[in-house]
């Protein structure tokens, strides 16, 4: 599942924490896109360019287009190298791109952007960037998919911005793990479909390629409670709730006390044309007393 | 509300008051006689707008929400001039479905639509509306669908209660297009010719504002101001408020606003607790309701209230809307595997029903409602919770019952913690 993360497009949030860092996964995904031949843009805000590029071999490094906002985020040195508008300007510039191939934009990190930019502006810009492929340009040519990978440190932000970004993201990868084995919980929100939730165990090799693994061995997992079978309330009763076949047949053959013959029944069921007078159909029952005398006569009233 | 005499005022005189604006609307007694405006055959002079009917309780003009089950719970339908607020479920699956049912109902009835969204192009939203179930072919399929769910015992001819064989079965089914509410097939798309025959206006926020525009800070977020101006223009130009006397048939404007309050509208109410624009959304709702009360329009708003950080704001928003329906889906929550809820996809909470020209509101006595999305239908049913047989039974609401049924008998120690009331 991790390797098909990039197939969907849109915004992918990589939520990491202090124990399980996500930059290596980000770099692994960046390397994967670069090897697929996509254009890769990196907005580096948190670590220096040398540190980010370390570990990649030269042909991948040549494909990465790096926008450095770490060294001089506010453009104080005024050398003219830094892009105008800061990181937001760079993102907006990526909204209006002219080349139409698939592109991957890696934000390192989204937390930095969230802390330095107003949340609503960032959300609006991310939405525009990641939905470019759904709005085709005027000439009708197909636009390649845009993947935006954002590294988000979930401990730095409150529930508000996290919730807002989660609702915006197509895929959310939360990093965790047990005892040195890293896992990624992938929540995929496809529009108008049920979100899928999967956990994938993985590890990152030194050359930043992704190695998918099975989970840790069973004995290391804590024992869950044994499954309590649902209690059948009809067992162990002092009275019998079930009917055997013979009993069921006997019940069916029993004549009901006020059962009419079937002709009378059909006559009653047939809708009558006039309901002016009501008829009383009386069929004497087996136990009925046909004595016309008033049974209360022998009472002395 | 009493001062605004046009819509929702006297019994049934909504449309006629708009048509004859010069007449005073003090009384609803009108002389029967030849009238210029189109009259109905009997009773009060109701201008017959397709897709509307007067409420049987107070004569309010009602439109259907697109879901007959929801119409019943709201007292017959949605009153013209009111706002229906839907609190979205966590992944926005069922609330967008209700939104689409509302719009599709507008198309089937020939109402004018106004669709506003910040994340999706309104043209795309309209393409994805569900197809209406109108003719008898669909009725056959529907009956077959219901039949498959019936238990086998009901096929046996009734032996004891045989007189009830003649009674009509109490099953709801698709109806012809002249009735009030319609049924929709969520798996099929609405036919293209219906969309083209309908009149709609779209408001897509990224197109309407340019992001580099420097706007001076004011009390309403820029996106909201634009939307209100757009709505006001449409109402004025097309004569929904009676300003241009409509020579043709009167119509209802159905306004649908998607994901209001999300950061894509420029509102930071979901991001922070006390932001700069904390009153922007409440002011928007206030102005919107004023616009709706003076025109023949209905509005549906879906709002991600689970993201709003300041809970007091949610209370303000509830007060400023007329009908508030909350959706809670079981996807991803622990209730998904709870056997109590296995037949349902989520819960519906009717949080508020308005009191329009009444002292009491039309509250139904059923408070536990669950919904499920079957293959073609969205049904809302009463939730039947089994009796609680665990040790922690308490006399509080059914919500607690459901929660305590999950915890299998932890004993008296649990009474101290959690949401239990003290039991004496």
UniProtKB/TrEMBL annotation, chain A:
<keyword id="KW-0539">Nucleus</keyword>
<comment type="similarity">
    <text>Belongs to the ELP5 family.</text>
</comment>
<keyword id="KW-0819">tRNA processing</keyword>
<feature type="region of interest" description="Disordered">
    <location>
        <begin position="261"/>
        <end position="301"/>
    </location>
</feature>
<dbReference type="GO" id="GO:0005634">
    <property type="term" value="C:nucleus"/>
</dbReference>
<comment type="pathway">
    <text>tRNA modification; 5-methoxycarbonylmethyl-2-thiouridine-tRNA biosynthesis.</text>
</comment>
<keyword id="KW-0963">Cytoplasm</keyword>
<dbReference type="GO" id="GO:0000049">
    <property type="term" value="F:tRNA binding"/>
</dbReference>
<dbReference type="GO" id="GO:0005829">
    <property type="term" value="C:cytosol"/>
</dbReference>
<dbReference type="InterPro" id="IPR019519">
    <property type="entry name" value="Elp5"/>
</dbReference>
<feature type="compositionally biased region" description="Acidic residues">
    <location>
        <begin position="285"/>
        <end position="301"/>
    </location>
</feature>
<protein>
    <recommendedName>
        <fullName>Elongator complex protein 5</fullName>
    </recommendedName>
</protein>
<dbReference type="GO" id="GO:0002098">
    <property type="term" value="P:tRNA wobble uridine modification"/>
</dbReference>
<dbReference type="GO" id="GO:0033588">
    <property type="term" value="C:elongator holoenzyme complex"/>
</dbReference>
<dbReference type="Pfam" id="PF10483">
    <property type="entry name" value="Elong_Iki1"/>
</dbReference>
TrEMBL record, chain B:
<protein>
    <recommendedName>
        <fullName>Elongator complex protein 4</fullName>
    </recommendedName>
</protein>
<feature type="compositionally biased region" description="Low complexity">
    <location>
        <begin position="13"/>
        <end position="24"/>
    </location>
</feature>
<dbReference type="InterPro" id="IPR008728">
    <property type="entry name" value="Elongator_complex_protein_4"/>
</dbReference>
<dbReference type="InterPro" id="IPR027417">
    <property type="entry name" value="P-loop_NTPase"/>
</dbReference>
<keyword id="KW-0819">tRNA processing</keyword>
<feature type="region of interest" description="Disordered">
    <location>
        <begin position="1"/>
        <end position="47"/>
    </location>
</feature>
<keyword id="KW-0963">Cytoplasm</keyword>
<dbReference type="GO" id="GO:0008023">
    <property type="term" value="C:transcription elongation factor complex"/>
</dbReference>
<keyword id="KW-0539">Nucleus</keyword>
<dbReference type="GO" id="GO:0033588">
    <property type="term" value="C:elongator holoenzyme complex"/>
</dbReference>
<dbReference type="Pfam" id="PF05625">
    <property type="entry name" value="PAXNEB"/>
</dbReference>
<dbReference type="GO" id="GO:0005737">
    <property type="term" value="C:cytoplasm"/>
</dbReference>
<comment type="pathway">
    <text>tRNA modification; 5-methoxycarbonylmethyl-2-thiouridine-tRNA biosynthesis.</text>
</comment>
<dbReference type="GO" id="GO:0002098">
    <property type="term" value="P:tRNA wobble uridine modification"/>
</dbReference>
<comment type="subunit">
    <text>Component of the elongator complex which consists of ELP1, ELP2, ELP3, ELP4, ELP5 and ELP6.</text>
</comment>
<comment type="similarity">
    <text>Belongs to the ELP4 family.</text>
</comment>
<comment type="function">
    <text>Component of the elongator complex which is required for multiple tRNA modifications, including mcm5U (5-methoxycarbonylmethyl uridine), mcm5s2U (5-methoxycarbonylmethyl-2-thiouridine), and ncm5U (5-carbamoylmethyl uridine). The elongator complex catalyzes the formation of carboxymethyluridine in the wobble base at position 34 in tRNAs.</text>
</comment>
């Amino acid at each position: 599942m991790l390797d098909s993360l990039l197939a969907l497009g849109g915004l992918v949030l990589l939520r990491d924490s202090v124990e399980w860092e996500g930059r290596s996964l980000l770099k692994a995904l960046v390397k994967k896109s670069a090897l697929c031949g996509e254009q890769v843009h990196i907005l580096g805000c948190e670590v220096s360019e040398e540190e980010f590029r370390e570990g990649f071999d030269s042909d991948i490094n040549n494909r990465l287009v790096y926008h450095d906002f770490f060294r001089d985020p506010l453009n104080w040195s005024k050398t003219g190298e830094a892009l105008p508008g800061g990181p937001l300007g760079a993102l907006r510039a990526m909204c209006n791109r002219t080349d139409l191939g698939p592109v991957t934009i890696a934000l390192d990190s989204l937390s930095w952007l969230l802390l330095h930019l107003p949340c609503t502006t960032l959300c609006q810009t991310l939405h525009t960037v990641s939905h470019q492929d759904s709005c085709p340009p005027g000439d009708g040519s197909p636009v390649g998919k845009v993947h935006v990978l954002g590294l988000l440190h979930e401990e730095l932000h409150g529930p508000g911005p996290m919730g807002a970004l989660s609702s915006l993201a197509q895929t959310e990868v939360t990093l965790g793990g047990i005892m040195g084995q890293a896992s990624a919980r992938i929540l995929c929100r496809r529009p108008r479909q049920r979100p899928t939730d999967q956990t994938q165990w993985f590890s990152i090799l030194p050359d930043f390629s992704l190695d998918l693994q099975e989970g840790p061995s069973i004995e290391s997992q804590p024992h869950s409670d044994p499954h309590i079978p649902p209690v059948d309330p009809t067992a162990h009763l002092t009275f019998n709730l079930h009917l055997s076949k013979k009993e069921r047949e006997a019940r069916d053959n029993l004549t009901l006390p006020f059962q009419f013959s079937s002709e009378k029944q059909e006559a009653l069921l047939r809708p009558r044309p006039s309901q002016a007078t009501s008829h009383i159909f009386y069929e004497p029952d087996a136990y009925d007393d046909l004595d016309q005398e008033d049974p209360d006569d022998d009472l002395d009233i | 509300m009493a001062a605004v005499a046009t819509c929702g005022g006297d019994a049934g005189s909504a449309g006629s008051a708009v048509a004859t604006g010069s007449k005073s609307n003090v009384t609803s007694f009108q002389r029967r006689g030849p009238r210029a405006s189109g009259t109905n055959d009997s009773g009060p002079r109701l201008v017959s707008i397709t897709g509307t009917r007067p409420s049987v309780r107070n004569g309010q003009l009602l439109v259907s929400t697109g879901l007959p089950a929801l119409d019943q719970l709201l007292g017959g339908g949605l009153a013209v001039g009111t706002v229906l607020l839907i609190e979205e479920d966590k992944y926005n699956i069922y609330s967008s479905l209700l939104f689409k049912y509302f719009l599709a109902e507008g198309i089937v009835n020939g109402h004018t639509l106004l669709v506003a969204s910040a994340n999706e192009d309104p043209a795309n939203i309209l393409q994805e509306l569900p197809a209406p179930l109108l003719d008898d072919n669909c009725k056959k399929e529907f009956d077959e669908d219901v039949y498959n769910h019936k238990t086998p015992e009901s096929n046996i001819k009734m032996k004891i209660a045989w007189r009830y064989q003649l009674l009509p079965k109490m099953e709801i089914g698709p109806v012809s297009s002249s009735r009030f509410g319609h049924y929709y097939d969520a798996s099929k798309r609405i036919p293209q010719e219906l969309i083209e025959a309908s009149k709609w206006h779209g408001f897509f926020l990224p197109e309407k504002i340019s992001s580099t525009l420097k706007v001076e800070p004011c009390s309403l977020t820029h996106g909201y101001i634009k939307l209100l101006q757009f709505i006001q223009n449409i109402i004025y130009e097309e004569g929904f408020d009676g300003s241009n006397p409509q020579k043709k048939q009167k119509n209802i404007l159905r306004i649908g606003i998607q994901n209001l309050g999300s950061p894509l509208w420029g509102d930071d109410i979901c991001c922070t607790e006390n932001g700069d624009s904390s009153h922007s959304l409440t002011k928007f709702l206030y102005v919107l309701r004023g616009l709706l009360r003076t025109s023949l329009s209905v509005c549906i708003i879906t709002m991600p209230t689970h993201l709003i950080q300041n809970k007091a704001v949610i209370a303000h928003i509830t007060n400023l809307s007329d009908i508030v329906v909350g959706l809670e889906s079981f996807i991803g929550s622990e209730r998904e595997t709870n056997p109590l809820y296995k037949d349902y996809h989520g819960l519906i909470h009717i949080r508020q029903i308005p009191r329009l020209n009444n002292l009491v509101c039309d509250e139904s006595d059923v408070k536990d409602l669950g919904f499920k999305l079957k293959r073609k239908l969205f049904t809302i049913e009463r939730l039947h919770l089994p009796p609680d047989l665990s040790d922690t039974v308490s006399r509080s609401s059914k919500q607690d019952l459901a929660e305590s049924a999950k915890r299998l008998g932890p004993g008296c120690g649990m009474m101290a913690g959690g949401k239990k009331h003290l039991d004496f």
